[in-house]
Specification:
By secondary structure, the chain is of the alpha/beta class. The protein has one domain (2-279). It is built from ten helices and nine strands. Strand 6 (199-203) and strand 7 (206-210) form a beta hairpin. Helix 1 (2-21) runs parallel beside helix 7.
């Protein structure tokens, strides 16, 4: 029964994406926006986003929260529509993508291993495309699709512009990741989503479990850790800002240096999100919440 469901899901998803691929970018993005704008508020994720926003911005009114939520669903919808045509985007055409600071990434790649860190802002998938079209193929850490047929399709499409795809939280994946670093390659990793394990680091004033991976790599191999920001511009245009490498602490206290480095990363991400909160992926449980206690006899 499960295999039949997977087939039906895959056929529907792939057919929709291949259809959107035939359309101009503005049409495919508009279709995704229309779909998410009406379906998104009906999903449990809408409640998660509202709870997250109330925690991150206790000073905002309900009207402001509603406006941000509408922007979140619009952004996710546009991203879904754009994904179908992602590899057709020319990141060297400033009319499509405004790239700032690509010299930081190119210089780091010329010297050896480096790590790109980013948050789920705007259309975050554009990052690997920027690297690829400048002669760099990042090995990207990602979360595989649960449906194996959709997973195969995603890997097929992303093969056009991405290096090795390394599954999150797998022993084999970590071995492959370290091999890339040891061979002087580049790694792309998003570290702003929910994590059950990791290091508790302040994020919008509340501890959030944060992946220590980029800090561990930086402290062990002293390779550049480069933050990259993705912004959505009007008309399915994008801005990608590649920042200078972060300063790596070196006090001799490994744990303190790791925690300090992770705090600096979360601070950068928080600043970006505060500027354009509607562009971030608020629909996941970034912070742990206490479960409501069931009433019972004492």
């Amino acid at each position: 029964m499960k295999s039949i469901l997977h087939i039906l899901q895959a056929v529907s998803a792939i057919a929709a994406l291949e259809f959107l691929r035939l359309l101009p970018m503005r049409w495919s993005a508009a279709f995704g926006t229309f779909l998410f704008r009406y379906i998104g508020p009906l999903l449990p994720a809408d409640g998660i986003a509202r709870r997250n926003l109330a925690r991150a911005f206790p000073e905002k009114s309900q009207d402001e929260i509603n406006r941000i939520i509408r922007g979140v669903w619009n952004n996710l919808g546009r991203g879904a529509g754009e994904w179908a045509r992602l590899d057709l985007i020319d990141t060297k055409d400033p009319e499509q993508v405004e790239v700032i600071g690509d010299e930081h990434m190119i210089e780091a790649a010329e010297k050896g291993a480096f790590v790109i860190i980013a948050a789920h802002l705007g259309n975050w998938e554009v990052g690997a495309l920027v690297a690829h079209q400048r002669g760099l193929r990042l090995a990207n850490i990602y979360r595989p699709a649960r449906n194996p047929l959709i997973e195969r399709y995603v890997r097929y499409r992303r093969a056009a512009f991405t290096g090795d795809l390394i599954p999150k939280q797998s022993t084999d994946g970590m071995r492959r990741l370290y091999k890339v670093i040891q061979n002087g390659g580049g790694i792309g990793v998003m570290i702003d989503q929910k994590l059950n394990e990791g290091v508790p680091v302040p994020f919008f004033g509340h501890d959030a479990m944060t992946a220590p991976l980029p800090a561990n790599i930086a402290l062990r191999w002293r390779c550049p850790i480069i933050p990259v920001r993705y912004e959505r511009l009007p008309g399915s245009r994008f801005r990608v800002t590649i920042c200078p490498p972060l300063e790596i602490p070196d006090t001799g206290d490994k744990d303190a240096d790791r925690d300090s480095f992770l705090r600096s990363i979360n601070t950068v991400f928080e600043e970006w999100i505060r500027e354009k909160p509607e562009d971030w992926f608020w629909v996941h449980r970034r912070w742990p919440y206490e479960k409501k206690k069931k009433k019972g006899r004492s």
